[in-house]
Amino acid sequence: MRTTLSQFLIEQQRKEGVIPPELRLLIEIVARACKVIAHNVNKGAISGTLGSLGTENVQGEVQKKLDVIANEILIQTNEWGGHLAALASEEMEAIHPIPNRYPKGEYLLVYDPIDGSSNIDVNGCVGTIFSVLKAPADSTGREMQEKDFLQAGSRQVAAGYTIYGPQTLLILTVGTGVYVFALDRELGSWIMVEEKLTIPEDTNEFSINMSNQRHWHAPVAKYIDECLAGREGPRGRDFNMRWCASMVADVHRILTRGGIFMYPADRREKVKSGKLRLMYEANPMAFIIEQAGGVATDGTNRILEIAPVGLHQRTGVVLGSRNEVERVRDLHRELV
Ligand code: AHG
Ligand code: MN
Ligand code: MN
Ligand code: MN
Fold it and tell me: What PANTHER family does the annotation carry (predicted)?
């Protein structure tokens, strides 16, 4: 019999002693919420979940119906569970403390309810990204505040993402490697399909939105020029390119077969600190990538060491196969 998510989590608790029961149950609830989100994503036009709402989120992005539906599903499934002190999301400006009618726990959940929203209406890949932190010790007994969430990514106790693609997969780390579970719809269970994923150190594949080329800073421009020069260029080999416009889909490909993913900060005012959000996109993905033996930086610095100053703060992201991410880091050191 194959291992289910529940069995895996119980084993992690028993054998490795890495997760307390409260964290195990919290992850189970997040995974259950993702099943409900998967159902809504799959129904699409049949249940009227496609299209935009016309409202804007705190980052000034037009919200899709599914952004808001998935955000609500994650709140409703998690707030009664008893293991959280508060939660926060891309789609909410302020943190969401657990209401007084529910028991409170000692964890904080931060998430991107639907990543790759622009893919929703074209039946492309989307996902959900989440990160779990411990509430600071000095927060016990008082109302949670945004500052309680502002912990470096290295403090995450669990992180994961789901990908609603041809298969619905859950990718999870609790700091003991990266595990992949597939949703078996007949059983209603998450079934382990891969364990201890590792990312190859070398790759011939990069992932970047090339339409932003004219805005890039010199190190990124040089790196991509070198890749494009192919066999005749300084890298001495040909590179391929992929861009799904969904971080989960691009990162998942890299976890599966290697590659480098880049959404760098660039010259545009809006993107001067990057586009992707540190707390609920870059940090959980960086934790997963490092657990698989890859490297995750903002171009220069390790993402997991960035000290956050705001819940929705952005960062440049360069992650994936070690030798390529290090090449980009070297170019930043040489050219800045
Ligand atoms: P979200 O849909 O959660 O706002 O995130 C979208 C992000 C990320 O998934 C993707 O890599 C990137 O935005 C795509 O941006 P471009 O449309 O600029 O390529
Ligand atoms: Mn968005
Ligand atoms: Mn996103
Ligand atoms: Mn999103």
Answer: FRUCTOSE-1,6-BISPHOSPHATASE-RELATED, SEDOHEPTULOSE-1,7-BISPHOSPHATASE, CHLOROPLASTIC
Q: For residue range 100-130, what is the model confidence (pLDDT) as tens digits?
A: 999 999 999 999 999 999 999 999 999 999 9
Residue type present at position 1: M
Nearest alpha carbon, ligand 1 atom 17:
245
- Nearest C-alpha to atom 6 of ligand 1 is from which residue? 116
The Cα–Cα gap between 89 and 94 comes to 8
| Interval between CA 113 and ligand 4 midpoint (Å) | 6
For 164-209, the pLDDT digits (tens) are 999 999 999 999 999 999 999 999 999 999 999 999 999 999 999 9
Distance of CA 118 from the midpoint of ligand 1 (Å): 7
What pTM did the predictor assign? 0.97
Please check if 93 is assigned to a binding site.
no
Atom of ligand 1 nearest to the CA of 276: 7
For residue 29, how far is its CA from the centre of ligand 1 (angstroms)? 26
Which residue ranges make up each domain of the chain? 5-195, 205-335
The answer to whether ipTM exceeds 0.95 is yes
Domain 205-335 bears CATH identifier 3.30.700.30: no
Residue 16 pLDDT exceeds 70: no
Q: Separation of 115 CA from ligand 3 center, angstroms?
A: 4
**For the CA of 120, the nearest ligand:** 1
- Cα(303)–Cα(296) distance, rounded to whole angstroms? 6
Atom number in ligand 1 closest to CA 119? 2
At the topology level of CATH, where does 5-195 sit? Fructose-1,6-Bisphosphatase; Chain A, domain 1 (3.30.540)
CB hemisphere CA count around 319 (13 angstroms):
34
**Which residues line ligand 1 at a C-beta cut-off of 6 Å?**
61, 90, 112, 115-118, 209, 245-247, 263, 275
Question: Where do runs of H (alpha helix) occur along 44-180?
Answer: 65-79, 146-149
Q: Give the model confidence (pLDDT) of 247-262 as tens digits.
A: 999 999 999 999 999 9
Residue that has been written with the tokens 């403390």 in this structure? 97
